[in-house]
Amino acid sequence: MNIYKKFGVSFLVVIIFFLAGIFIGYSGRSEIDKVANIFNKEPSFDAPVDFDPFWKVWNLINEKYPTADNVDDQEKLWGAIDGLARSLGDPYTDFLDPTETKEFEELLVGEISGIGAEVGVKDGFLTVISPLKDSPAEKAGLESGDIILAVDGKTTLDMSVDEAIDNIRGKKGTTVVLTVADIESSTTRDVSVVRDIIEVPALDTEMVDGVFVIHLYDFNQNSSIEFQAALREFLNTSSKKLIIDLRGNPGGYLESSIDIASWFLPSSKVVVRENFGEDTDEVLYRSKGYNIFKPGEVDIAVLIDEGSASASEILAGALKEHGIATLIGTQSFGKGSVQELIPVTYNTYLKITIAKWLTPNGISISEYGLTPDIEVEYDSNIGLDNQLDYAVNYLNDR
């Protein structure tokens, strides 16, 4: 064979093997190397997790899904981060994408228009913690413990708490339809609620058979000041019997609950513990020592129910465990976690649970709620407030 032909054949074979090598090498790239036009693809930490499946799915979506181009890569990333937040299984940890961040910031500077009900997750279901007093939710017949199955026909099974709230809120005068279930009767019903501007009263007072009653509806910025005025009103009576009614109180500011507890607890007594998990010291919130009552001077009962949550549970738990008050009613809701809002980018946030609230004796409010000293179920059939009546009689018999 001609030497040039031999050389040509050999050269062709080399080229074929060279190109085959390039093809095999190119097709055998890691999934992350196949991703184009994405910055900071590699994790900035030593991760004991194989990220290759994530990038493989990313590439498969872009390659296979017929209309993948209709969703830009940034939106896909927001969705992936949202899924990461949801993977914790914590209903109060949530990622706010740019649209949700804008809506959240608008809420901070504007009036809140909604139905006036606090909602949370209990046993995996979106649940009404409590309808606020005189709110559209209360007038429409929503009750503490109602499970919200759908909002305007959209299932809540995959919604975070923040998503549900966004769907329930809306312009004043518009109507939202909630499909709710009563877990005891296993029945469902549609509840139409007309949205309105929500104004929450802090408290009101009354005298019942010689017992002074403070109905505390919320722990807002003015609650501690109004509670102080209510105590002054109580001191101007001849009564030595006091009921603090926390039923249907969904909570609010931690500082308000500490201030109110401080009227009954000596200085430095623990009101609540903030637990950040293992290997981290707890933060102890202590009484400010406003206490104006001598030991045993006043008999106190605190009313709680499944609508008592968060700051309500902090106050009730502190008064119970320090021997200040007797808890009467039913098991509280069990909402005792602390969230922090952290900016991720200039227009996105992560709202993440960073700690759990524990009672002074170390009982987790989220896991257990509060068990009353005396259990009294509310009886809606008798037309009277049997829980309040029981508490009044209990104190008068002491």
Structure description:
With about 400 residues, the chain is of the alpha+beta class. Residues about 20-25 have low confidence and may be disordered. It starts with a helix and ends with a helix. The chain has helices at about 5-25, 30-35, 50-65, 75-85, 100-110, 135-140, 160-170, 225-235, 255-260, 310-320, 365-370, 385-395; strands at about 95, 115, 115-120, 125-130, 145-150, 155, 175-180, 185-195, 195, 205-210, 210-215, 240-245, 270-275, 285, 300-305, 325-330, 335-345, 350-360, 375. It is built from 12 helices and 19 strands. It folds into 3 domains: about 5-70, no CATH class; about 110-195, Roll (Pdz3 Domain), CATH 2.30.42; about 205-395, 2-enoyl-CoA Hydratase, Chain A, domain 1 (Alpha-Beta Complex), CATH 3.90.226.10. α8 runs parallel beside α9 and α9 runs parallel beside α10. Helix content is about 30%, strand content about 25%. Strands 10-11-12-15-16-19 form a 6-stranded mixed sheet, with helices on both faces.
Element layout with pairings:
Elements: H1 3-27, H2 31-34, H3 52-64, H4 73-86, E1 94-96, H5 98-109, E2 113-114, E3 117-122, E4 125-131, H6 136-140, E5 147-151, E6 154-155, H7 161-168, E7 175-182, E8 187-194, E9 196-197, E10 203-208, E11 211-216, H8 223-235, E12 241-245, H9 254-261, E13 270-275, E14 283-286, E15 299-304, H10 311-321, E16 326-329, E17 337-345, E18 348-358, H11 365-368, E19 374-375, H12 386-396
Helix pairs in contact: 8-9, 9-10
